[in-house]
Amino acid sequence: MNRALPFTHPPHNLLIEPIVRHALEEDFGRAGDITSELTIEASARATAKLAARKAGTIAGLIAAEIAFRLVDPSLTFTYEKPDGSTVTAGTTLAVIEGPARAVLSGERVALNFAGHLSGVATATHALVEAIAGTKARIICTRKTTPGLRVLEKYAVRCGGGFNHRFGLDDAAMIKDNHIAAAGGIAPALARLRAGLGHMVRIEVEVDSLAQLEEALANGADTILLDNMSLEDLRRAVALAKGRAVLEASGNVTLASVRAIAETGVNYISSGAITHSAPNLDIGLDF
Q: Span 129-275: which CATH code?
């Protein structure tokens, strides 16, 4: 089956640089890198390699490059593998050359971004591979590290996944507490349709087939099927008959994701790929 590819183009540097700059400011503190400044001659130069110490899917090298360039614009950062690459242990990802002090001062922040974001991409890629051959797509959620959403969602794309909404403003999503506070699915949908522009889509979260039928009857664009059994997911697909995009969510693991995809849902969302992805071990050596 031919599968559409996610939009993997990286965020603009205008979005990434403030995030990386803040991380460097946190690390440099009030006095800067006192160890490197006092132990290494200012004239000393170095060549260092960023390498994957474990197999995985790479993301975040763009942030690592910005980290080194912010420390010292004279540093050169040469990519050996681009973000989105799936690599084996020992693969060289990039080569950094320039003043030794600057390489060492930028090392930790660069590795923090590359390791964390590659962990997100690797976790995403594993789920994507597990559902190969089905029509379902793996998507992320808003369960991201505060301040890192734009980069974590980029890492999901590097892993072959797709993005759910980026924030509260780019799509409307009626969740269980909205339903309770608004007095039901129908009035919540009616109020949204009365106030939203024509470009904004509406998703409704449901946890029963009865709620699904109400959401369908009231014209929801997308319906999130929350923590439903496989049998209920199959019944939901049959009930919807293509009238709405269906997203399955809840308890998505490598062990369960294939069976969820085979129910016929369009999307499978996972918060774990961003909030619980293990760091991919990436090192820097002179």
A: 3.20.20.70
